[in-house]
Structures are given as structure tokens and as C-alpha cells.
């Protein structure tokens, strides 16, 4: 018999390892339940976890038992209902099962409910965004003063006790003891040799005063050797730390939304959900990400998150005003050499016909050469208009960095989002 014992430490959460193994084992069932939950609930309700159920048959464990055949002696307990030779009635109910423990409930016995457990918020978001990433995230140049890492930078005689280098301090103490004791040991060896030589002399020629003097000298030298401290403050060495600039994976996401009169409240609600899902995605995967919110109708302006989602405006639609504003913000605040730039735009596709050509030129000549990715979602059940057709020419110019999809209803948000931000096998 072989026994396997897991002795790996797991101090705070004793069941954390087993929980991760369970989530990995039933990833298919859990992911299906998470996708159903995303389609069922509001995107604004994504902050909480989810209760997941797994069919009982899918969590059954293999059981080892004796196979048929062979001779076995079995002792069964007695009963008051049967005697030797009686035939046992077949259990009523559907066949093919393995007892009351399997299947649903009935009036003939007890059933087994599906195994249910609750995913935490972090685990829920992990399954929601599984396989997604911001495409073409690149490592930009060093960004001083903000992106630094404290690294060891040699040793010093001054420092705090928490940074003491025990190995180096002991090495320094050992070297000091050798250096301080060496001349004393040499003098001690000479005194011992002189005493032995004096004692080997003939008693007539031996000098008692010299012997007493040598013994006193030997005792003095031994005390000096014993007086050398094992470690001294002079021996202590401390690790020094210095701030070292690190390559930064910074990203900024521009959220552009049409708030003109053609955008109904339903369109705006769907756009809000898309950006909220995008915000959760960014928050989940990247620590150094900034969000810039740009609203537009005939004119565009940068607004706060609160105003972006909840303020109401009406008017016509000139999309180029928003693209021009995004370009100006990039030039002013986000140098291309330091930031990964992403734009997500939501619109119903309505735009002045003469302006759609301007939008195409702005994207091809100015914005796209600077951006890592541009995602455009058109929220409409109707046929595409001039803006969509002009954007199709941009897709031909930048097939890897420009993507566009159509959303008809709220249930399309999550599938479209996964398609826009699915993990690419290779990135430029």
C-alpha cells in the first residue's frame, strides 16, 4: 500500500489549494454557468460572485470494489422481515439507477440535489475574462519617478537591523579576529618555544627568573587572545537599497460615446454596459491603466466618469469632433513612447455624410499609427450607414489593430466583447 502525503504549507487558507484544483477540474461546467449568469444579470451587477451548480453525476468519484467471481464468506446482520429462501422484491421506480442516492427526488425515496457552491468576486471575474487580453500591449520606455523598483545596491557599515547581512557580517568578524590574533599568536608561540627551551636546560644552567617571566608573558598573551571580541560593531554590514527605473506596461483607454439625439435611451444603456464591462476588464488585468471619457454630438468634450454615463444631451452627430479631441489629448498628455493607446467607440452609426470621410482620414493618417487597438461597436438593429462603410476601409488598412462589431440588444454585449478582446496567438 502506498500513501501520498501533501506536506506543503498553506497557512492562511487551508483549503485554497483544494479549491483551485476543484475549479480547474470542473472548469467547463463553471464557465458555462458563468456565461449564463453574465447573459442573465446586468453588467452593473458584475461586482458580486455567482452561485454555481454542478450535476451530481459529474462529481462522482471512482470506487474500488471486489469484482465478480471467486469464493467469499460474508456475514450479514439478521432481520425480522426475511428468512432463508425468501425472494427479495425488486425496488420500485425507474431502472438503471444505483439506488436512492442517484437521480431526482420522488415519493419512493430521497434524491440528491446538484452540488452547489459560490464563486468569489475574483474567481467570477477570472472566468468572465478567461482568454481575453488587450491586444498589442507593448513594453514602453522607462518612466522615471513613477515606475521604480527597490533593488539591492551593495553593502554599507550603516543601516537598520532589518537589513543586516548576517553572512557578510560574520565574514568580516572572522577576518578581523584572524588579523588581530595573528601577531599575538606569533608572540605566544615564540614565548612557549622559549619556555620549553629554558626548561630543557640543565638545572645548573637554568634561569628561574627567566622561566617565571616567560610564564607571565604566556598568560598575558592568552588573555589578550581571549579578549578579542567574537563580533564587533565594526564588523556589521547592511544591505543598501536603491530605486531602479523599470520598463512600464502603461495603457490608456479612451472611451468614446455618441450622445446625440439619435441615440435612444436604450442605445445609451447598452453602451454604458459595454464600457462598464470594459472597465472591469481593465481593472482585473492591468494595474497601470488610465481611462479617458469623451462624449460627443456635434461637439466633443472630455468628461468625468459620472457625467459620461449619466449626463443627458441632444443634438446632431459629428464623430470627427471626438476623434480630433482624442488626438489632441494624446499629443498633450500621453506620449506614444510611454503609453499603450487604446480607443473603444460606441455609436448608433448615425453621422453627417460629409463627416464620415473625415473620420476615415483622421483614423488612417493620425490616430491608427499611434494606437495599439481600436474597437468600434455599432448599436443598431438597422442597416449600416456611411460611418460603418468608411470604417470598413480602415479595417482593410489595419486588419490587426482595428475591429468593429454590431450590437442589437443587451444580450449581444458579452459575446461581442469577447470577440473584440480575445487573445491573439501572435502580436506585433
Automatic annotation (TrEMBL):
- Pfam families, per database record: DUF444 (PF04285)
- Renumbered to this chain, the Gly residues biased-composition regions fall at 93-106
Q: What is this protein called?
A: UPF0229 protein JI62_04785
> For the region Disordered, what residue ranges are annotated?
84-109
**Similarity annotation:** Belongs to the UPF0229 family.
Q: Which NCBIfam families match?
A: PRK05325.1-2, PRK05325.1-3
PANTHER family from the entry?
UPF0229 PROTEIN YEAH
Enumerate the InterPro entries for this protein.
Answer: UPF0229
High-level lineage: Bacteria, Pseudomonadati, Pseudomonadota, Gammaproteobacteria, Oceanospirillales
